[in-house]
Amino acid sequence: MTTVNLAHRLTVAGLRVLVVDSDPQANATSILDAVARELVGTVTAP
Q: Which pTM was predicted?
């Protein structure tokens, strides 16, 4: 199970999740950015 999949399952279970992407390729960041764009209005930025 990948970090993104685990984060998704925990979020669906009602938990708040912080994913820290320290990979130089930034794969988790790319995936989460794509998901955030699909969920417009549910993701807030500071």
A: 0.63
Q: What is the DSSP string of 2-38?
A: -HHHHHHHHHHTT---------TT-HHHHHHHHHHHH
In the chain, domain spans: 3-38
What is d(CA 19, CA 23) in angstroms, rounded to the nearest whole number?
12
Q: Which residue has the tokens 């130089």?
A: 24
> pLDDT tens-digit profile of 5-45?
898 899 889 999 988 888 888 888 888 777 767 765 555 55
> Which class for 35: exposed (0-12), middle (13-18), buried (19 or more C-beta within 10 A)?
middle
